[in-house]
Please model this.
Amino acid sequence: MSHASLSHASPSHALSLPNRLASGAPVLSAWCGLPDPSVPGLLAREAFDAVTIDMQHGAVDLAGAIRAIPLIAAAGKPALVRVPVGEFAAVSRILDAGASGVIAPMINTVDDARRFAAVAKFPPVGERSWGPHGALTLTGLQPEDYFTSANGLCVALAMIETREALDAIDAILAVPGIDGIFIGPSDLSIGLSQGREVNPASAAVDAAIDHALGRARAAGKVAAIYAVSGERAGALARRGYQFVAVASDTALLRAGARMALQAAGA
Model:
């Protein structure tokens, strides 16, 4: 599904991530791993375009993610959730709760991508079962309207973070129901260096980032990536990435603490 198709399939409301992606401006997302749902709710009130909840490396469980989604929506922002590796069973539950997108890590093969798409999309594209009670409340859509629009409304992003995934990137992007890719630079650096280093700013990772962006553009699908800082996020957005996650809640908290202490002369 192309970027344009995502937009046309989506109803027009504040929680539509595809509409934001199709606007032409980069979508900057907060990234939250702290377990209290008030944290993503608070960051959603800032000028971020979206908020992503991290269940893979963060301390957020499924119940916490589901509680956070309406807090993000209350601020008029779309919520995304990164699920743990291989936990495809959580995908439809997250979408049922009203998330606008799901990021699945370690999608290394076409088979991985197909299994992800199957639970993220309703038939005939996938096998997602019916029960979107939270999504109906948050979107305000009638059941029949949600069913016909949900495949374009809910974005499925496959993480590309290994050499194997890079080699299969065109085939992964071609899987029906995969709306785009999400680059994990740190894990990608581990894979590309054969486990020798964690260096998301390495020359090899930089080349891979450009390659992945080009392949996503060629496929007409979303190019998304994680950035360790605001400065890096801006550079990646200028490079052409349409969705950029900015730092993390813990990084922002620590940076704010350092700034306050410096201002206090500590």
About this structure: The longest strand covers residues 27-32. The chain is about 50% helix and 15% strand. Residues 1-5, 7-12 have pLDDT under 50 and may be disordered.
